[in-house]
Design brief:
Radius of gyration: 36 Å
Number of strands: 14
Distance between the termini: 82 Å
Structural class: alpha+beta
């Protein structure tokens, strides 16, 4: 009770002095006591007595004392007070802005952003979405001192990246690129070169920790580690294998620890080496059967530093066992795969095992194997054997075709036309995982004019025509990409024009559908305009009663729904005016057309489909819309003709039209208008 009275008396004194700052300072320092004694509403009233400033009074009313937790209201009031004209603020949506004015009557903050001037927030929205920008924030520097910002960006890329990290916190390299590009610091096309410059500087900065994996964040340290007794004691008790790996690498970077024979080390380094060896041994054991990629990293580090425990052969055997090295390679950063490959390939027998595993290795691992052992006959012979198989490994195909200049003198490889045939096959159909990545690389290669020019330059005229015809006959590439590539090839080698296959334009059929489907579609349209749209109008009118439309979520949702309904109404009306109902009485069995039943024979046996109009579809009865891919491939075909038949995965094979029949009575009954449905 005494504390309550004392606080009330002090607030009363501030009211007499009209000292809002003093009163608010007292509130901040005694939040718990005031929340229990005076209650939030009492604190609100006491603060309002300390000022006649209308802006401050509107701030106090806006933070909802008594409606929110007391400490939250205090924080919100402190934020609002900080939004003074000229202050820099940050928005996740708009970036950096400058407060232009505050309106106590409408309780609004007006902020100028780079891309949107005069943007208004209610006080409540401002507190929720804006933050006061720290003085050292990189966006503040750009706004307040453009010249200094430009100098830092251009001349000191390392310091600039540190400033970005200080402003936004630790982040991955990918996220760092997004921040720099989205804020216009660096253009996307220039980022790679800029980051390499910055990285070279940051690697020499002991306050910056650059991770080995792109998925891990770049970290800024508060102070430089001295790696003395304190660090060594803490490190000796570390049990996380990942942290042990990172700590040892950082120690090596800063102190120069190595495994070279004859290296002179002082007593402190000898002690540190012993502790590091012990912890690395522990980490290798801890990572076993838990994280194969981490195990491989630790094993390579043990060997690099010259430790004999755990034994090298024991670590190799673990990675060879169940082909764990394959999974490890897929998870390791590209620059670390080479270390694992060197570690595993300790003798001729080990290399043979690597060559045998090539079809299962990721692209980066294949590139390392070829880069390290490509001069050895055994490696070349293994690769040549794989490339002569009917279906060559996707990774090897992509590597050899993409970098063919490096392999042109390999006598063990099949002719270039064979490699290109494998590449064309890889570009076809749906793929997944690592093969999908290779497919995308191959497709980009075929879209590269310079690469195509080189390829045609290496091929003899007969092989040029063979390559062109094989690609032209490929049926599973994206049609637009396929056409563009064919045209590009003929421009590189004009003589290929003679090999272009002229595609006959398909016969066009009237836009029709069955009476059943037309009636059901019209019934859906009538429901849309007579029920759904009026109901939406009622929801809009009801939502208006909630007030301020700019912040009325229910109103916005209803308006979005209205736009979608109106768009649907427009499309359905156009369709109903264009597509006509039909009974297909004029259909003949001379060829496949809407209104016939067709029997086809493919690799999985015979199948029967009935092709009707655009809106007709009933898979249980075998009814296909004339707009489906299968129907489009069948239209115009006659008995005995072949056509492309795609399966559920998008892979394409050829099938043959065996029979064309008139519609059965069951199908004709299905096409009639259902009871109660009218046109």
């Amino acid at each position: 009770m005494a504390e309550k009275e004392a606080l009330a008396d002090r607030l009363g004194e501030f009211a007499e002095k009209q000292d809002f700052e003093g009163a608010f300072g007292l509130v901040r320092e005694n939040q718990a006591a005031l929340a229990k004694s005076l209650q939030p509403a009492g604190v609100r009233d006491a603060l309002k007595k300390t000022t006649k400033d209308r802006l401050l009074l509107s701030f106090i009313d806006s933070v909802e004392f008594g409606e929110r937790p007391f400490d939250e209201s205090v924080i919100r009031l402190e934020k609002l007070i900080g939004f003074t004209p000229g202050a820099f603020v940050l928005s996740k949506a708009w970036g950096l802005g400058v407060v232009k004015r505050l309106d106590y009557f409408y309780k609004r903050v007006t902020v100028d952003f780079r891309t949107k001037k005069g943007h208004q927030f209610s006080f409540a929205a401002a507190v929720d979405t804006l933050e006061s920008a720290p003085e050292g924030h990189i966006l503040v520097l750009r706004q307040a001192d453009p010249e200094a910002f430009a100098t830092l960006l251009k001349e000191k890329p390392g310091d600039f990246i540190k400033a970005v990290l200080k402003s936004y916190g630790d982040m991955t390299i990918i996220r760092l690129e997004d921040v720099c590009v989205q804020n216009g610091f660096v253009k996307s096309v220039n980022w790679k070169a800029y980051w390499e410059r910055a990285r070279a500087e940051l690697k020499r900065d002991r306050l910056v920790e650059i991770p080995a994996r792109r998925a891990d964040p770049i970290r800024l340290k508060a102070s430089v580690e001295d790696y003395g007794e304190g660090w060594l004691t803490a490190f000796s008790h570390e049990t996380d294998p990942k942290l042990i790996l990172a700590s040892v690498r950082e120690y090596m970077h800063q102190k120069g620890l190595s495994g070279k024979e004859g290296a002179v080390e002082d007593d402190a380094t000898v002690v540190a080496r012993a502790k590091i060896g012990e912890r690395l041994g522990f980490a290798v054991t801890a990572a076993r059967k838990v994280d194969d990629a981490l195990y491989a990293q630790l094993a390579c580090l043990v060997i690099e530093l010259g430790f004999v425990k755990p034994p090298a052969n024991e670590m190799r055997d673990y990675l060879w066992e169940r082909k764990r090295f394959i999974k490890a390679a897929a998870q390791l950063p590209a620059r670390e795969i080479g270390s694992m490959i060197r570690f595993l390939a300790c003798d001729a027998s080990a290399k043979e095992r690597l060559y045998a595993a090539m079809p299962d290795l990721c692209f980066a691992a294949i590139a390392e194997v070829v880069g390290q052992f490509g001069k050895e006959p055994e490696c070349r012979a293994a690769i040549g054997a794989y490339m002569r198989e009917p279906k060559a490994p996707a990774t090897l195909t992509t590597l050899l075709v993409g970098r063919y200049e490096q392999f042109r003198d390999w006598q063990e490889l099949p002719p270039l036309i064979t490699l290109l045939t494998h590449a064309i096959a890889l570009g076809e159909g749906r793929q997944g995982g690592e093969t999908l990545k290779m497919q995308n690389l191959i497709r980009r290669l075929f879209g590269d004019r310079k690469w195509l020019e080189k390829v045609f330059g290496w091929l003899e005229p007969n092989d040029q025509a063979l390559f062109f015809e094989r690609f032209q006959a490929s049926i599973a590439w994206d049609p637009s990409t396929h056409h563009t590539t064919v045209v590009r090839m003929t421009r590189i080698v004009p003589a290929l024009e003679a090999h272009v296959v002229k595609v006959e334009k398909k016969k066009e059929y009237a836009r029709v559908t069955s009476y059943r489907s037309f009636g059901l579609r019209k019934q859906e349209y009538l429901k849309l305009i007579n029920e759904d749209m009026p109901a939406n109008v009622r929801r809009i009118e009801f939502a208006k009663s909630y007030g301020d439309l700019s912040e009325n979520a229910e109103y916005q949702y209803a308006k979005d729904e209205q736009r979608a309904l109106m768009q649907k109404q427009t499309l359905m009306q156009a369709d109903l005016e264009t597509v006509k109902p039909d009974d297909f009485a004029d259909a003949t069995t001379d060829e496949v057309m809407p209104g016939v039943t067709v029997v086809v024979a493919g690799k999985d046996g015979e199948r029967t489909w009935t092709i009707l109009g655009e809106w007709d579809n009933d898979l249980e009865k075998g009814i296909l819309s004339s707009k489906t891919r299968v129907a489009q491939n069948l239209l115009g075909k006659r008995v005995g003709d072949d056509f492309e038949l795609p399966d559920e995965d998008g892979n394409v094979s050829f099938a043959t039209v065996k029979e064309i029949r008139p519609l059965s009575e069951e199908i004709r009954e299905w096409m009639k208008l259902p009871p109660g449905v009218q046109i």
